[in-house]
Amino acid sequence: MKFKVGDKVKAKIHGQDLVGVIKEIDSDSKPYLVYFDGWTGGHNGRDLYKGNHCWWFEDDELELVGRGENMKKSDLKSGAIVETREEKKYIVLLNTKFYDDEKPILVNLADGCYLYYLDYNEDLTHDNKLLDIMKVCQHEYVGDNIRSHILKQDEDDWTWVREEETIMTISEIEEKLGISNLKIKKED
Prior knowledge:
Blueprint: E1 8-13, E2 16-25, E3 32-35, E4 54-57, E5 62-66, E6 81-84, E7 89-98, E8 101-108, E9 114-116, E10 133-137, H1 142-149, E11 160-161, H2 170-177
Antiparallel strand pairs: 1-2, 1-5, 2-3, 3-4, 6-7, 6-10, 7-8, 8-9, 10-11
């Protein structure tokens, strides 16, 4: 497979250039299900997604726009749903009445507690690693975010997921694979 879930791709549908995100990969003749935020000329991807935002494609019908592109704090909009490293979900509220001031905050969807937006770095990391933002659901229409993550109709509807490197020692790899005396050779 040329592409993977989460890749941002460009496709042409009925002469129109659209940019979307690969949501599913199947073994069908057209293996890639692409979700186009704001476009409604397609279908719901076998009832996987609300609305008519999806279309199936083959390898040669797609062009990679971005893989693992990093979302920035400045890209977040009010109404986006984010998930932290500790798997807690928050809704982003910018310019929100907060006590006597207006402040940008993130409100926890489970208990209403909040985090300060200004405590986040531009790369969506926080001084407390557990509060790093790992996933973002940010659609053009905030109702799609709410349906997916507050009303829990499609909790896997993330528009961005942080890609992190996995760093392991040889002994950790051996343990994970259940083997011993792993030898690594250089590729020819």
